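Human: We require from you a standard protein entry with sequence in single-letter code and fold as tokens, and nothing else.

Assistant:
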Amino acid sequence: MNEIYDRGLCIDGGQGDLFFSEQPDELMAAQALCFRCTVRIRCLEAALENNEDWGVWGGVIFWDGEPFYRKRSRGRPSKTDVGLPLEANRNELWDLVRTA
């Protein structure tokens, strides 16, 4: 599994802390790196297998063991955020990994 992370943009970019931030804007920046990464799907697969509790793995935010597509700031959501999904479905993520 370590070989996955050794080739990821999270390591190459030297921004590892970004992937474990509590700030929604920093988590979005980490996700943007994931979407360009060549080991993204394998990283997500490893996170699902290991039941990761925290961090951005394969473009998905894991928060207290639950997967999220995005993390909102505190307070009322902006008009552009209304209706966008927050929580990710673990079964759908497994389907994504299997069909990649």
Observations:
- Residues 2-99 form one domain.
- The first strand starts at residue 54 and ends at 57.
- The chain has one domain: 2-99.
- The chain has five helices and three strands.
